Structures are given as structure tokens and as C-alpha cells.
UniProtKB/TrEMBL annotation:
<dbReference type="GO" id="GO:0001666">
    <property type="term" value="P:response to hypoxia"/>
</dbReference>
<comment type="pathway">
    <text>Lipid metabolism.</text>
</comment>
<feature type="domain" description="O-acyltransferase WSD1 C-terminal">
    <location>
        <begin position="325"/>
        <end position="470"/>
    </location>
</feature>
<dbReference type="GO" id="GO:0051701">
    <property type="term" value="P:biological process involved in interaction with host"/>
</dbReference>
<dbReference type="InterPro" id="IPR009721">
    <property type="entry name" value="O-acyltransferase_WSD1_C"/>
</dbReference>
<dbReference type="GO" id="GO:0006071">
    <property type="term" value="P:glycerol metabolic process"/>
</dbReference>
<dbReference type="GO" id="GO:0071731">
    <property type="term" value="P:response to nitric oxide"/>
</dbReference>
<comment type="pathway">
    <text>Glycerolipid metabolism; triacylglycerol biosynthesis.</text>
</comment>
<dbReference type="GO" id="GO:0019432">
    <property type="term" value="P:triglyceride biosynthetic process"/>
</dbReference>
<keyword id="KW-0012">Acyltransferase</keyword>
<dbReference type="Pfam" id="PF03007">
    <property type="entry name" value="WS_DGAT_cat"/>
</dbReference>
<dbReference type="Pfam" id="PF06974">
    <property type="entry name" value="WS_DGAT_C"/>
</dbReference>
<dbReference type="InterPro" id="IPR045034">
    <property type="entry name" value="O-acyltransferase_WSD1-like"/>
</dbReference>
<keyword id="KW-0319">Glycerol metabolism</keyword>
<dbReference type="GO" id="GO:0005886">
    <property type="term" value="C:plasma membrane"/>
</dbReference>
<feature type="region of interest" description="Disordered">
    <location>
        <begin position="473"/>
        <end position="495"/>
    </location>
</feature>
<feature type="domain" description="O-acyltransferase WSD1-like N-terminal">
    <location>
        <begin position="19"/>
        <end position="282"/>
    </location>
</feature>
């Protein structure tokens, strides 16, 4: 957030809230076939609350997240990054929708509805969020489908924002809604003048003392240089590794969505027996899902990988609750051409260990901060070019967002499950959003409608991958006629 911009003759001090470079990149990358919002589907025990109850609850919580009443104000000619300004015409009834699924209200019907809702773009002229109250699910249950644009908030901050609606006790009370007065809208002259001033002074501040606690230019460039040198061997190896190019391609306007799930009690014994982390086990299981899908398509061969971009949160503990993106990314080669499930896990573990060492040696926050030196017009073009380039370099996006390990409630109703929705872009036609709640980890799979008519093969394959690793770890019985080979403990397991 920038400082006061003066009253512009209006008698009221104007506080300018300018997008960060990362957030602006997500905003500029939005297109007709590439809606860039994140979302979720949360299912609750019944009975469903009324539409009015949900509206009153949200209005009472709005002061905690002012961004939900703000819209984006672009700067003419992209002279500066867009601003967040209060929407003087904010109407909550537009953002909160009410619908129902027909009987019997099955899980498949909910998935189909959620796929249609989440596949539609948000209106960029209004605050960038929607919430759908869904009634009619089996056993008296109901659901909330939520959408928030990626430029507004990243996954980790999104978990913090669950305070907007969720309580940790069923008997929580909420304050009455209060009237809200929007800050005045800046004039076009103020917007342009502020953008020019920011474009001139922001790099200068970085070049001199820098922002309090922020990286200066020397540290920024040094961090970027170390990152490039350290990453060169990995990049060189990946450039010569055969990738599943058949998974990438043009993205249309429609989406398919599927989900599956696992229990932490299944994943932890695998980690203990075979080594690595729970996240490594999850990525290895996803590799099995892609292996099954490619095998059915007749596109599987030895040595093939599916390269997945894995976002990494750079948010520090002191930054929890800040409404902007603090993320970087690593590229993990999922070894789909490897027939042995334990060898697939070992490959994933080695890669993730390398990335962890690299991230410890490199100040990734300095790399993110380099966006402050890039003109907004070039930033817009650069993000679009990067999204186009991802078509040849990455075939999937996999993001893991840790959720609460305690029960959550909305208006006294307990949430029973939650599923994450991650956008696709740049020719990468499938994403997997992993969300944990209580003892369950869910996998929300979002894919281009035409590119993945067999999305259920991927969903079932992830589940099969978990079961396969359970057998290899000795925590489940092998199917009839199959016995897993005896294995020596891995080095990681021995540690």
C-alpha cells in the first residue's frame, strides 16, 4: 500500500493501494479462455441456512477484509500497476448467489454444478469474488462454492481469510452489520500522476535504503544471480528429459472438474516406511494418476515425465493475513515412465530435496521483488509470454494448501469436506489443488474440457497410486495374486 496521495482538492486524504507486481501479473494474464480465480467447494451438515442469514453473516465480517468491497482501477496506458479502490456501487446481493441441485443431490451433481460455476469468469469491473449457497444435497447437506481472483489473494492467505465466514465453535456469535462509507474514487489525473510518481520513486527507494525489511537492489540482483547459477544443472537436466507434450495445448472456455481424497493416516505410514515427506508421497501418487492416463491414451514410454509447476509460498509468519501474493515456484518432473511406484517416490523425493536446499541458499523473495523494477506494460507482456512458454515446459500445476486441523462451522453447521480449485493457463491444461482438513486430504482436479475427456482416469489413478504405495510400504494387503517385492529400507527411511 502506498502512502497518502493528497486530497486532490476533494478535502479528503486519499490512500492509494497499488497492486504488487505478482498480483498485477495475475490480473494482466486474465483472458476470455483463461479465468484466473481460485476457488473451493465446502460441504456442510444440514439444515441449510437461509440466504438472508448468509448475507447478514458476510456483511458482519466485511470489515475484516476490506478488499472484498474493492474493485480494480487500471491505470491509463498501463503507466503504473493497477489500483485497488472502494467500489461505490458495491452490492453484496450481486456477489452472493443462491441455487440448488435437483434430487437426489449426489456428489456427481455437485461436482458438475461446481465445474460450471468455477469455469465462468468473474466480472473484472466489480470486486473479484463470488459465493454460491447450494441446497439440495443428499442427507440434508448443503454447500458453499466460492471464487476469488488470484490477483486478490494467494492460497495461504486464502486459508487465513476463512475467518470471513468460518467459526471454530458451533455456538459462535457475530456482530450486527454496520453501514459502510466507501473512500472517494480517485480522479483520472490523480491515478496517472500517482502512477508516474510511483514509477520514478519505487526503483529509487530500492536502489537506496530500500523498503523497511525489504531487499535492496544489490541483494536483489545477487539473490537472482545465485538462483540462476544454482538452478542451471536442474534446468539443463530438464531440457533434455522427454516430457508428455500430448497433455499440453490450447485452452478453451469450458472446464471439467473431478476430485478424490485420502486420509493422513494412510499417507504417514508410507512416509515412515519408504522415506520422504507426505508431500513427496502425494506427488508420487499424482505421478501414478498421470501414468494411468497416458497408458490408456497409448502415449506412455520409458523415461517419460510429466513436468508439474509446484507453487511455493514465500510468506513469512509475520505476513500472515496480508492480502497479496508471496509465491515462487519449482518444476518437478513426475516420473510417469517409471513402472516401479517406490522408484517414482524416490525420484520425487530427490528432486524436492534439491529444491529445498536451493531455496535455503537463495533469497527467493529478492527474485519476486525484482518485479518492482519492471514497467507495468512490460510486466503485462512478460506474464502473457511466460504463460505461453509454459506450454512447452510444464504440463501440469500442482499446489498444496494446508488447511485447518480443527472442525470449522458456518452459522453453527459443521463443515464435513472441502475441495480446492486451481486455475489453468498458458497451454497447461490441468491443475491439481490439494487441500487438507482435519484428517483428510482432497485432490481437486481442474482441466480443459476438450483436452481431458478422460479426467476420471487421472482422479482414479491418484487414488490407485496411494493404494499402490500402501502395499509397497506394507501397510495394506496386495490384491489377490500380487505380492510386492521385498525391499531394503531406503536411505531416507533409515534416517
Amino acid at each position: 500500500m502506498d502512502g497518502p496521495a493528497g486530497d486532490g482538492g476533494g478535502g479528503e486524504e486519499l490512500i492509494v493501494d497499488r497492486m504488487s507486481p505478482t498480483d498485477a501479473g495475475f490480473y494482466f494474464a486474465e483472458s476470455e479462455n483463461t479465468p484466473l480465480h481460485v476457488g473451493s467447494v465446502a460441504v456442510f451438515e444440514g439444515p441449510a441456512p437461509s440466504y438472508g442469514e448468509v448475507i447478514r453473516l458476510l456483511l458482519s465480517k466485511m470489515p475484516l477484509v476490506p478488499r472484498y468491497r474493492q474493485r480494480v482501477r487500471p491505470v491509463p496506458f498501463q503507466l503504473g500497476r493497477p489500483l485497488w479502490i472502494d467500489d461505490p456501487h458495491f452490492q453484496i446481493l450481486y456477489h452472493v448467489r443462491h441455487t440448488a441441485v435437483p434430487g437426489p443431490g449426489s456428489e456427481e451433481q455437485l461436482r458438475n454444478l461446481a465445474g460450471r460455476v468455477l469455469g465462468q469468469r468473474l466480472d473484472l469491473a466489480k470486486p473479484l469474488w463470488e459465493l454460491w449457497l447450494v441446497e439440495g444435497l443428499e442427507n440434508g447437506r448443503w454447500a458453499i462454492i466460492s471464487k476469488v481472483h488470484h490477483c486478490m489473494i494467494d492460497g495461504v492467505a486464502g486459508t487465513d481469510l476463512m475467518q470471513l465466514m468460518f467459526d471454530i465453535t458451533p455456538d459462535a456469535t457475530h456482530p450486527e452489520p454496520h453501514d459502510w462509507t466507501p473512500q472517494r474514487t480517485p480522479s483520472g489525473v490523480e491515478v496517472v500522476a500517482g502512477a508516474v510518481q510511483d514509477a520514478l520513486t519505487q526503483p529509487l527507494r530500492r536502489l537506496t535504503a530500500g523498503e523497511p525489511g525489504g531487499p535492496g537492489v544489490t541483494r536483489t540482483l545477487a539473490g537472482a544471480g545465485r538462483s540462476l547459477v544454482k538452478a542451471l544443472p536442474t534446468v539443463a537436466r530438464q531440457l533434455t528429459t522427454p516430457i508428455a507434450r500430448s497433455l499440453s495445448g490450447p485452452i478453451g472456455p469450458h472446464r471439467r472438474w473431478a476430485w478424490t481424497e485420502a486420509e493422513f493416516d494412510e499417507l504417514k505410514p508410507i512416509r515412515t516406511a519408504l522415506g520422504g515427506t507426505v508431500n513427496d508421497v502425494v506427488l508420487a501418487s499424482i505421478a501414478t494418476g498421470f501414468r494411468d492416463l497416458l497408458e490408456r491414451r497409448g502415449a506412455l514410454r520409458d523415461g517419460l515425465v510429466v513436468r508439474s509447476m509446484v507453487p511455493v509460498s514465500m510468506r513469512q509468519e509475520s505476513e500472515r493475513g496480508r492480502l497479496d501474493n508471496r509465491i515462487s515456484a519449482v518444476f518437478v518432473d513426475l516420473p510417469v515412465g517409471e513402472a516401479d511406484p517406490v522408484a517414482r517416490l524416490d525420484s520425487v523425493r530427490r528432486q524436492m530435496d534439491e529444491y529445498k536446499q536451493m531455496m535455503q541458499l537463495v533469497d527467493a523473495r529478492s527474485i519476486i521483488a525484482m518485479g518492482d523494477f519492471v514497467a507495468p506494460t512490460l510486466l503485462s507482456l512478460g506474464v502473457r509470454a511466460a504463460l505461453g512458454a509454459s506450454q512447452f515446459y510444464a504440463q501440469a500445476v500442482t499446489t498444496n494448501v494446508p488447511g485447518p486441523r480443527v472442525p470449522l462451522y458456518v452459522l453453527g453447521r459443521r463443515m464435513t469436506s472441502a475441495h480446492a480449485y486451481v486455475p489453468i493457463a498458458g497451454g497447461t491444461r490441468v491443475s491439481i489443488g490439494i487441500f487438507s482438513y482435519l484428517n483428510t486430504m482432497t485432490f481437486g482436479i481442474n482441466a480443459d474440457f476438450d483436452g481431458f475427456p478422460d479426467i476420471d482416469l487421472l482422479s482414479a489413478g491418484i487414488r490407485r497410486g496411494i493404494d499402490e504405495l500402501k502395499v509397497a510400504a506394507g501397510t495394506a494387503d496386495a490384491p489377490a495374486g500380487e505380492q510386492p517385492p521385498a525391499r531394503e529400507p531406503t536411505e531416507a527411511a533409515a534416517r
